[in-house]
Amino acid sequence: MFFRNILDASLDASHNATGASAATIEKYLEYITKFNEAHPGTIFAYPCMRQAIVTRMQQVFASPLLREAMGFYYEIEPDGTLTTELLNKINTTINRTLFSDEVLEKLGHIPEEFICPITLTIMHKPVKVITKIGSKEYTHYFEESAVEKCIIHHGRVNPMNIQEIIRMEGGDDLKGRILDFIKLAAQNGPSHSSSSSSSSSAVKR
What is the reported pTM? Predict the structure, then answer.
């Protein structure tokens, strides 16, 4: 597959939660662009989606547990590289979610917090996963069905920080922000949708 060796090498330099280097991000984008050229009409035709997914890929490819969770969800071998099979499955999944083609054409930026770290798609039914390190609680959001599959295989462990999940709550707050973002984008176009992301509440990481 395209860039398999490059992406494998990038993993060796990307073992922390902050993600990959700018050069590696460019390689991800280059791969997805070539995939889209070979498979016209995919979700990756939209620059906003390519950039949003790649941002999350930094975290996925730096975390063995996230890679495994993604493999469980998509029923593929979780080897930590971009493949045509994986991108096809992401494309199929995201086309069943919240954004229409008309809205995607208007978007200039999709906030990272809207993208599930497991599915690499905009969350349709986000769930809030809370863990605790010392006295401090940490919150991450996942697509509900994706994190449930991860729990079946790995127990109640948050794949983002490898900590025991102390509770899970509905993610209506995040879903509300996603829906507001979509409505605003549909009404006003990319300049407004981009600026709205900076005012949305930050997700704890």
Answer: 0.73
